[in-house]
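in:
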């Protein structure tokens, strides 16, 4: 039976909250919250007894509970983190790394966000290129939190939003590129353009995220045509390799040619200086010879003739013949220019040996010619 319900055992005011029926009858008074709190405090002081001093155990428990409640407001923000303080669910401030204190729950609460951690999202999908070809693209994005307040409050699910923005951006960039460019040399450029487009979109959302890098991990045509595209890619790689080899050969040959040209120029300059110096020396010598010729023409001509004959005959093979002799000489002219051994022999000794070898048969022939000549004269 309720305490405030009329009954034989409830004739008096037995309601513990103090709002039972009055002894005189009539209707009950409404609940007085202030009186109730005052009576509760009085009961805590007296320990539930009718009077006296408060129980020490109860006071100690209250003090300990209050201290523990206040101590729960201490928190530490680590390096690379930010603490977002909320008061009754509304943003109040952002705490930097270090120890801090806030009003305990449920008045205030803190959300600690790591802004130095690199996070990643990955997506793999089939996309359509500008030239209406299908390509399988595997792309990933690395990002981090740059604004803790925006990250917590502006978007319901920031990570899912970034994943959607990644797929949308890569589809747009691939849709504006040709397939050969996507699967070939354009991967790095597509990744950079995707990163820029993602960051622009996220800044518009004020999501508090920064895209660090976008990696186009794989871009392949459909399996049915992969062999044909592999051949085309190999041909492009061969082209790049041959071009690099040609550049390397040019880088090797051109410095050598330049060095050789410089050396030949130096040799030509030295030859020029040598020829000019020789010509100047000859001209000076001729001027001096002219002066000597004017003084003694006959002696000078004789000297020039002898010098000329000496310079001509000293480097040539010579055969000396006695013009008054009537011997027939055997001169092997075809063997005279051969070797130094032939030219080093004395021409007179060669002629004498040849004449002595043929003296027998040729002497009779010579006598017959002499007789024939006498008859003619």
């Amino acid at each position: 039976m309720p305490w405030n319900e009329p009954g034989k055992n409830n004739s008096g005011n037995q309601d513990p909250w103090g709002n039972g029926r009055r002894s005189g009858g009539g209707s009950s008074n409404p609940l007085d919250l202030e009186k109730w709190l005052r009576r509760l405090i009085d009961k805590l002081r007296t320990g539930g007894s009718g009077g006296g001093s408060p129980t020490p155990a109860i006071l100690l428990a209250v003090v300990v509970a209050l201290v523990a409640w206040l101590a729960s407001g201490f928190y530490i923000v680590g390096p690379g983190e930010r603490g977002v303080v909320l008061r009754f669910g509304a943003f109040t401030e952002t705490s930097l790394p270090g120890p801090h204190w806030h009003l305990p729950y449920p008045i205030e609460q803190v959300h600690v966000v790591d802004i130095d951690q690199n996070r990643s999202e990955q997506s793999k999908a089939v996309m359509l290129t500008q030239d209406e070809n299908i390509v399988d693209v595997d792309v990933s994005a690395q990002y981090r939190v740059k604004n803790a307040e925006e990250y917590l409050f502006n978007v319901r699910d920031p990570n899912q939003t970034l994943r959607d923005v990644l797929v949308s951006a890569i589809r747009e960039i691939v849709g504006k590129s040709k397939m050969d460019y996507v699967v070939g040399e354009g991967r790095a450029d597509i990744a950079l353009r995707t990163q820029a487009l993602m960051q622009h979109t996220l800044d518009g959302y004020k999501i508090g995220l920064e895209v660090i890098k976008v990696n186009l991990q794989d871009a392949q045509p459909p399996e049915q045509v992969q062999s044909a595209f592999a051949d085309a890619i190999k041909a492009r790689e061969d082209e790049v390799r041959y071009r690099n080899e040609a550049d390397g050969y040019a880088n090797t040959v051109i410095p050598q040619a330049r060095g050789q040209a410089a050396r030949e120029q130096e040799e030509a300059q030295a030859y020029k200086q040598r020829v000019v110096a020789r010509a100047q020396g000859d001209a000076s010598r001729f001027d001096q010879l002219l002066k000597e010729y004017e003084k003694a023409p006959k002696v000078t001509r004789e000297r020039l003739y002898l010098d000329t004959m000496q310079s001509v005959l000293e480097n040539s093979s010579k055969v000396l013949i006695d013009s008054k002799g009537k011997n027939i000489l055997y001169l092997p002219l075809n063997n005279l220019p051969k070797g130094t051994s032939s030219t080093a022999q004395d021409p007179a000794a060669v002629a004498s040996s040849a004449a002595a070898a043929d003296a027998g048969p040729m002497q009779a022939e010579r006598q017959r010619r002499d007789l024939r000549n006498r008859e003619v004269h």
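note: Confidence is low (pLDDT under 50) at residues 1-31, 339-351, 354-361.
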